[in-house]
Amino acid sequence: PILKNYLPGEFVTEVWQSFGDWVNLVYRVYVNKPYIEVEWTVGPIPMDHGREVILRYSTDLDSGKTFYTDSNGREMLRRVLDYQPTWSLNQTEPVAGNYYPVNSRISIKDMESHFTVLTDRSQGGSSLSSGQVELMLHRRMYKDDFKGVGEPLNETQFGHGLITRGRHWLFYSDLDSYGDHRDIGLDLFYQPVVSVGGDVEVGNIPRSGIQNTNKDLNVVTFERFDETSLIVRLENIRSKSEGGKMISADLKKIFGAYFSENFKELGLAGDRPIKKEKSTDCDSALIPLL
């Protein structure tokens, strides 16, 4: 790797690193933020032969063969190398067979510390060695893998291979502060979206009237359902394995003038009453009728 730039600043310090002509990393350390941001740019991958590009983080944690990945951004699932809990695994793919979908985060831990990588998109990831975490960033293949697609993975744009760019947030903590990755994740996944355009009716309503003081309670959805009602989704961001507990919410205090005594409790999809769901141990959608 080549150190290309070092930019110290009052609020953020950047380090630019290059691995040849088509792999670049930017490390950012922010003042008063508990994480390190890594912005990666990969591509176009050369056409000499097929490549899979990963980013591997190495720590001194004694994590052994165990790591954790999120289940669609919710509960963290325990993964063990070359092992499946419900059947006897005959591992014939030591790398690919230990890769799992990472929708929002992957983590490792030992008896004292915890290391979590939050992603800004779904990626494949694993921990193939103790203390390491790796994530697949990009790939370009020139032969079919005979897994059913029937074509090589060689996507192009304007005659060139694709360039992809993304971010990882690295969070290192002791075990007592492990659950803080949930709060950090909200900062990453719920960033403001800036749009430029004319005076267009977007259909949603402002959140300025929402008063939520419980940091474990997240208002996932707050938007119009039809002309006379709103749809609201609430979630408890902390799972039981992270010390989370059942919480209650006072809708009148949270939503103020938007609150109505006339509401229906529906399943998470918002298409059927909660009583008809097979399990009520899940998030629910509340539709106050205006």
Description:
The protein is mainly beta and 290 residues long. The chain has a 9-stranded antiparallel sheet, with helices on one face. Strands 5-12-11-8 form a 4-stranded antiparallel sheet, with no helix packed on it. The chain is globular. It starts with a strand and ends with a strand.
What would you say about this model in short?
This protein has 290 residues and is mainly β.
Task: Output the keywords.
290 residues, nine-stranded antiparallel beta sheet, mainly beta, globular, disordered C terminus, four-stranded antiparallel beta sheet
What topology emerges from the helices and strands here?
Elements: E1 2-7, E2 12-18, E3 23-30, E4 35-42, E5 51-58, E6 66-70, E7 76-80, E8 100-102, E9 105-109, E10 113-119, E11 123-126, E12 132-140, E13 156-157, E14 160-161, E15 164-174, H1 180-189, E16 217-226, E17 229-236, H2 251-255, E18 263-266, E19 284-288
Antiparallel strand pairs: 1-2, 2-3, 3-4, 4-15, 5-12, 6-7, 6-9, 8-11, 9-10, 10-15, 11-12, 13-14, 16-17, 17-19, 18-19
Question: What's the alpha carbon Rg, rounded to whole Å?
Answer: 22 Å
Choose one word for the global shape. Answer: globular
Task: Record the strand order, biggest sheet.
Answer: 1-2-3-4-15-10-9-6-7
One letter per element, helices H and strands E, the order comes to EEEEEEEEEEEEEEEHEEHEE
- Number of beta-strand segments: 19
% residues in beta strands? 35-45%
What's the total helix number? 2
Query: What is the average of the pLDDT values?
Result: 85
